[in-house]
Write a structure and sequence with these properties.
With 478 residues, the chain is α/β, with parallel strands linked by helices. It has helices at 43-50, 93-107, 138-150, 171-182, 257-277, 284-293, 317-324, 369-373, 377-386, 397-405, 407-419, 423-436, 445-455, 460-477, and strands at 58-62, 77-81, 122-126, 155-158, 162-164, 186-190, 199-201, 209-214, 234-238, 242-245, 251-254. The protein contains 14 helices and eleven strands. The termini are far apart.
Length: 478
């Protein structure tokens, strides 16, 4: 293993460090680098219960293009989506370095040179061209968010930064972010390395989980942005001496709020995976809220006498987990602080781990039609898939009326589930769409059912739903 490289300078648009606020005092020695799982308390325990994440959870990333040939990413479910709305450009080496580092922290494979936090999840990268002469373009940023939402992202880590002295952002970017959050997508973004001189969008936007950075000794970095624009929706994580991949095939240690945000994104992906593995529908915004509510307050000596520097506080994965799972399943014991574990998560035995749908009596709100009506379309589709056995003529007329009222949302959820390879959820959605008799012709439902049947021959529940969907379609023809 090579020595850690020196962390790169500030991202385009960030301020130079003021000499009056050194982040590395003369008497402070450089901390030893850590692997991602060593940088966040509670990850090792989550690995034991999620096998490193759920393949049905998709992480979207707006960052530089990762080097897919890096040995840590061999076998990772990772794709780089085209920026089709832009002319072809040369890849900036610094952006490729940044994107490769981020990709490995999220999806580095078990047993490789750099094990990541959520290696079994799926990741989609979008990389609008950015270099020293071409700062990030908010129009491309907005388009990237929309593309990732359409591609089925549960989380979007928006790493590009738009400095703003007005504490506002471009209207198109604000609308794209707001629509993503309305769709149930968690947006994470670095608070920025501007020493509080500027705010950074999209981290300042409502509903976005802004991420600041603290040092290895627990003290806040002076460069980590803070201020009223971040109040109520920010969290802090380690932002120093964390290993990630470098495009040359080696690994390097980095620092900054972009380091911290990758750690928070990976932890959030595991928490959403845990929801799935316990038979609950994934709810990325509930994970965001749990992380904010359980953040540990920092002490005055950690915040240099300004507690607002810590935003809501330090990330506490075990506490967030306990909040999400008020009555944890037997065997789930997450304690804080975590014992740092150098090992990577064991690979899954085969395919996705499926659980039975939650008991109706135990989760009455999940089966209340009014509650379903208020859900964002991804959550609505997930709940309906859990109730697919009730998609029969004459059964639950209120549910059928809801499906017909929101048939475009269910169709959108069906496509999302197929793209995420969550074929069981897609089969359940197909059954409701077939019963509704209102599936859009452009959806190609019958072709979709045939496709799913080829992919799920050994999944009895999916086969059952697909057979029922076919019968419902055939019945409407006769």
């Amino acid at each position: 293993m090579a020595d850690a490289r020196t962390a790169p300078g500030p991202a385009p648009g960030t301020a130079a460090p003021p000499t009056a606020q050194p982040d590395t005092p003369p008497d402070r020695s450089a901390p030893p680098p850590r692997y991602p799982a060593q940088a966040v308390a509670g990850i090792a325990e989550l690995w034991r219960h999620t096998q490193g994440g759920d393949p049905g959870i998709t992480i979207g990333v707006v960052d530089g293009p990762p080097q897919l040939s890096h040995p840590s990413l061999t076998g990772a479910d990772l794709r780089v989506l085209p920026t089709w709305w832009l002319p072809p450009t040369q890849t900036d080496p610094k952006m490729a370095e940044h994107g490769t580092w981020t990709a490995s922290v999220l999806l580095g494979q078990p047993g490789s040179i750099l094990p990541g936090l959520a290696p079994r999840c799926r990741a989609l990268f979008l990389s609008p061209p950015v270099d020293e002469e071409n700062p990030p373009d908010p129009l491309s940023g907005a388009r990237a968010v929309e593309e990732l939402v359409e591609a089925g992202a549960d989380i979007i880590q928006f790493t590009l930064a738009f400095p703003t002295a007005s504490h506002d952002a471009d209207d198109m970017l604000k609308r794209a972010i707001a629509r993503a959050i309305d769709a149930g997508v968690l947006i994470t973004a670095p608070a920025g390395n501007d020493y509080g001189n500027n705010s950074i969008a999209p981290a300042i936007l409502p509903g976005v989980l802004a991420v600041g950075a603290h040092r290895a000794d627990g003290a806040m970095f002076y460069f980590s942005n803070h201020g009223p624009a971040y109040t109520g929706h920010g969290i802090t994580a380690l932002g120093e001496a964390v290993y990630g991949a470098h495009p040359d095939g080696d690994i390097e240690a980095q620092k900054g709020t972009c380091v911290a945000v990758a750690l928070v994104t990976g932890a959030a992906a595991l928490l959403i995976s845990l929801q799935r593995h316990l038979g609950q529908p994934p709810d990325a915004l509930a994970v965001r809220d749990a992380l904010l509510a359980t953040a540990r307050p920092c002490m005055p000596e950690q915040s240099h006498g300004q507690t607002e520097r810590c935003l809501n506080g330090f990330i506490d994965v075990p506490a967030a987990t306990r909040r999400l799972l008020a009555a944890p399943s037997p065997g789930i014991g997450l304690s804080s602080p975590a014992q740092h574990d150098h090992s990577a998560p064991a690979p899954a035995s085969s395919g996705r781990v499926h659980q039975h749908a939650p008991d109706v009596a135990a989760h009455p709100r999940q089966h209340d039609t009014q509650h379903l009506a208020n859900l964002a379309w991804p959550q609505l589709t997930a709940h309906l898939a859990d109730l697919a056995d009730q998609a029969e003529p004459g059964a639950r007329p209120a549910l059928l009326a809801l499906v017909r009222q929101r048939v475009l949302d269910v169709a959108r959820g069906f496509v999302r589930a197929v793209m995420q390879r969550d074929y069981r959820q897609a089969a359940g959605a197909a059954r409701w769409l077939a019963l509704s008799g209102m599936a859009p012709h452009t959806l190609g439902l019958e072709t979709g059912i045939d496709f799913l049947a080829q992919r799920t021959p050994h999944d009895p529940q999916a086969v059952h739903h697909l057979q029922a969907a076919r019968a419902l379609l055939n019945g409407k023809r006769s």
